[in-house]
């Protein structure tokens, strides 16, 4: 290679490196801005409670676990162990219910020809536009009449009835992408709809099902209003309700314990994302979800 | 072709079965609605008439520390009444009203439900609460120690009492007298009005160091505007509309604009920065202002923050109403109309209010105890802090001056945030004070009229 060629190549590399460096610095800076609240919450969880809202920095000169120790048992006689267990029960069963029932409903809308299919699908999509506040009182009246108030049933049973139109829509979109030739081949081999659904559709739809499961878990885990309305005994509280008890507009608030327990409450959500990261990204990219 | 509707006789029977069911359901609902709206014209029940079987649920609001204290009182009562099964349902203040409003729609409120003077009218008016007059008259609920003016303030428009106060709170002006003395200033005359306070602040400001203001901007505080309106001979609420004039609200906004423009109160951007911060982070608590206002129960928190930074001592005086008696607020206990063990609920309320040991446990976190002898006991208790004793002394003074419990009409809660929005628009120069006042009154009247 001649000296001239080397010089030209070097001339090309230098702007490339500078450009890449500039882009990376920009991205890292933007990412830091996005992540700063989370980092600040983490730092604050390890600060003494009286300094909770005073310090802006991420540096904690004398970290302490006092907020975790105090926060874990500060609310009620149950403690956060029970609240986490309650949240896991509700969110776990909500995931199972949503994935099972919404997949069944979605299969019907995507693959079964029946009268008024488009109308019913449109009606179901329309329910997404109904705000929860419109439904709250009628639902409460119903569940109260059934004697389900202060139990987990109002938070779980509807999930087994394909009431989450968003997930039905998401899965319908994915099922429609599966080539019909596959299911027709199954029919030629003698499969009915149940076997086609279980043996062909579900195994091919793992990314979409994982996406539905992840969103279902996160929404259910973070849900505040419905547990607030339906769960009245402290021993039945989920984590978001228990967290809210640390901060009260009419009295003294315990911000240190709030941030400590909030940090713990993020662990399951982050763990869920990390465990199913690849499938989630596949599901989001193939269903056009943004 | 269907013949439904053509024959007046037997029309109902010609309807399809599903339609008949719908008509029946609508009819039942309408009947239920009429029954609910019709109210109960009978006398409030006495101890002999009320049900006394089954468990009771007790619900209240507060932070974790307050909830723990109330829970301890409940546990103590439970220990004395082992035959009564109790379920407690504490939550935070804001969440509490969301939950109770839904429960009220289903007539499923807890037997013993906390109420607050700013919120209780809705549940009284809608028939969700039990009239307690009969239980008061026969002594089941002992209110003999509660000042008559406090109890009578709770009487609803229909003449009944639905709520027994368990904690009194009030707002007053707060002064950092030692810091004022550092800067060569004497505090403003506590018997004056907010106009006198602002005039005083404008005179005092030149002696303040940079970053310290003589007075906090109170233009966005509905309670302090109420004090101002009282001083003008007006009230916050009239009959289904506001009780003050547009001129009064305009002059209130102008007053605080004058304080800010004169440099005696923080500019709007500083106010916005501190809006909604906890009491311990407020401008008063960090020494940024030397005169402000707050609820009496916040004084201890402010003092803790001042002590941490060596920034003086806070004291509370009456709201600047220009000599007119101010109003106080009350947290109270009610019994729901759907309660199946009224006897135990009434006993719990009576015990909660009258047992001196409860006041020691609660440490005024739920407000000052309403029973005079209990308050006097706290004043004599060497274990009780001086800050609490000062609050009690001021409360007695307010009662002597003719203070009453201010029960807000339904829909009035929205005014708290509405006046803040209106004032901020004025402070940031987005609208004139007169226009903001007119808009606020229009919105307030709409809220108070029930729409």
Automatic annotation (TrEMBL), chain A:
Location, primary (coarse class): membrane
KW Membrane (keyword) present: yes
Pfam families: BPD_transp_1 (PF00528)
TM annotation in the entry: 21-39, 82-107, 119-143, 155-175, 196-221, 255-276
Key words, A-Z: Cell membrane, Membrane, Transmembrane, Transmembrane helix, Transport
Its membrane topology: Multi-pass membrane protein
Domain (ABC transmembrane type-1): residue spans on this chain: 84-276
Localization annotation: Cell membrane
InterPro entries per record: MetI-like (IPR000515), MetI-like_sf (IPR035906)
Family under the similarity heading: Belongs to the binding-protein-dependent transport system permease family.
Protein name as annotated: Carbohydrate ABC transporter permease
Species, as recorded: Occultella glacieicola
UniProtKB/TrEMBL annotation, chain B:
Coiled coil regions in record: none
A family per Pfam: SBP_bac_8
SUPFAM superfamilies in the record: Periplasmic binding protein-like II
InterPro entries documented for this protein: Bact_solute-bd_prot1, SBP
Protein name: Extracellular solute-binding protein
UniProt source species: Occultella glacieicola
